[in-house]
């Protein structure tokens, strides 16, 4: 927990969408934006059986919190009653089977426009900057590490 309006988690358990929605609800908000990123069963003609995530826990949390704080600041304009009220972000670590969520992003906003924009910003920034690494595991037993801009932080 960062403050009363932002919750960020990295966890090995199944992510709970209702927890996210319940947290972001606000009487001042006219929109709740929800995104669940799930493991799909294919990538470039290969059959994906699961994903596996690793993270530098402390750095990844710090990065994601900063992204959430930036979104709250950048997508608000009090002069025209635009505000991001609450943000919930949860990223799963370890093995994530097909059809299960790897990431949940939920937020509440005064209007839908700033909410959609903020959610897209959060997702893209996490994919680019968070110290989280994904290994895609295929049916034939092979796998492929997917890297973000901070991939050099992981030392193998």
TrEMBL record:
Protein name per UniProt: Uncharacterized protein
PANTHER family the UniProt entry points to: MOLYBDOPTERIN SYNTHASE RELATED
InterPro entries per UniProt: MoaE_sf, Mopterin_biosynth_MoaE
Pfam families linked to this entry: MoaE
GO BP annotations, alphabetical order: Mo-molybdopterin cofactor biosynthetic process
């Amino acid at each position: 927990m960062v403050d009363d309006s932002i919750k960020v988690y990295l966890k090995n358990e199944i992510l709970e969408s209702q927890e996210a929605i319940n947290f972001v609800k606000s009487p001042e908000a006219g929109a709740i934006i929800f995104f669940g990123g799930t493991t799909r069963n294919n990538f470039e003609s290969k059959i994906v059986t699961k994903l596996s995530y690793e993270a530098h826990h402390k750095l990844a949390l710090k990065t994601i919190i900063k992204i959430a704080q930036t979104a709250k600041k950048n997508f608000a304009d009090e002069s025209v009653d635009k505000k991001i009220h609450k943000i919930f972000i949860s990223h799963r670590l370890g093995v994530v089977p097909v059809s299960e969520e790897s990431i949940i992003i939920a937020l509440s906003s005064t209007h839908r426009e700033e909410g959609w924009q903020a959610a897209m910003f959060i997702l893209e920034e996490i994919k680019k900057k968070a110290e989280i690494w994904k290994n895609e595991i295929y049916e034939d037993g092979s796998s492929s590490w997917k890297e973000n801009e901070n991939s050099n932080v992981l030392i193998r």
